[in-house]
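Intended use. Records like the one below are meant for learning the mapping from a protein sequence to its folded structure. Do not use them to infer anything beyond what is encoded.
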Amino acid sequence: MKNDRNAIYDNYNNIVDALKEYGMWDELNSSEKTRKSYKNVPYLLESNDVVGKKLVTFMDTMLEEIEKKQFEIIYHRTIDDMSALHSEYDEAVAEGVKFNWESNLVEILDYNGTLSGVVIEHGGERRTEKADKVLMAIGSVPASRIVSTTKGIETDESGYVLTREKPCGMTSRKGVFAGGDVVNRPSTVVLAMRDAKKVAEGIAQYVDAIKLLEAINMNEHIKK
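Structure written out for the chain above:
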């Protein structure tokens, strides 16, 4: 959490640098793009930077309270199966968080309607731990409505859409493209924007190829 807190200060500059690197910053600063406030990306990023700095002050206050308490994470799988980044795990351990691997929360206890503890099961044995808060983590999965109702779009075992390298972003169904989190798994907004730009180029290439084939077919028909 401390590392995440400090990173907020750099977030604005990192986003701007990334947009410049991918050739999008000058376009976003054009008068056409900044005319309407809700589309003015530079203004929104600057406003977000101000909010972020206020958030840092809030997090500093919260960290003082967090460091006084003990936190435990109960996970039904092993450390090798966790979906979190190992860097996130290392940071949590550094903050004093205890991990219970291959364990399950089987019961939440209360005293006169107030949370008092939890029952944790591990290896067929159960133990009771005192607790004043329980936070349930349910994870995330890609939305499947479009994929499940559209024929010809293949996904991996986790439900994420499979795409081709050329044209970039095209799914197993010709003419249908996908990008962002539904392909690459949850990531940052900047990476999603970069992916969108690449997929847009792939769409343009596909459309140009279709037009070229139609023109060739038309010319052959005229010759006949």
